[in-house]
Amino acid sequence: MMLVSYWGVPLIGFGKTLLAFVVLAQVCIGFAQFISAFCDEFSQALTLITPFNLMFYLLGGLMINVKTIPKWLVWIEFVNPVFYTIDALA
Predict the structure, then answer these.
(1) Radius of gyration of the chain measured on its C-alpha atoms
(2) Which of 8, 41, 52, 56 has the most CB atoms less than 10 A away?
(3) Whole domain around residue 76: which residue ranges?
(4) How many domains, in total, are found in the chain?
(5) Residue 2 lies in a domain
(6) Distance CA 60, CA 67 (A)
(7) What confidence tier does 3 reach under pLDDT thresholds 50, 70, 90?
């Protein structure tokens, strides 16, 4: 996803881009560890994390325009780390 995001947003400088992706990676790792703390096995954690990742990447603003998201899904924009990363790079 980082490669697609990197070429999908305007180039603003290597340092800022790298910092944004490192912060995104840390947030996603923390989120995955939070979800996996409630699971007994790795397969359970992977099953729970997959829908969240799909939702974050699809509704982050790179693949689907944020303005066209239905009203009842707008709240996802404010808890989505991918949205904030793309917003920081734009």
Answers:
(1) 14
(2) 56
(3) 13-89
(4) 1
(5) no
(6) 11
(7) low
In this prediction, residue 37 carries a pLDDT of 93
The answer to whether 25 and 79 are in contact (CB under 8 A) is: no
* pTM of the predicted model as reported, rounded to 2 decimal places: 0.71
20 domain-assigned: yes
Given this model, what pLDDT does residue 2 score?
53
Tokens of 23: 């912060």
Higher pLDDT, 7 or 55: 55
pLDDT tens-digit series, residues 14-53 = 778 888 888 888 998 999 899 999 999 999 999 999 998 8
**Three-state DSSP class for residue 66:** helix
C-alpha 6: how far from chain center: 13
Does a structural domain hold residue 4?
Answer: no
Longest dimension (CA), the chain: 42
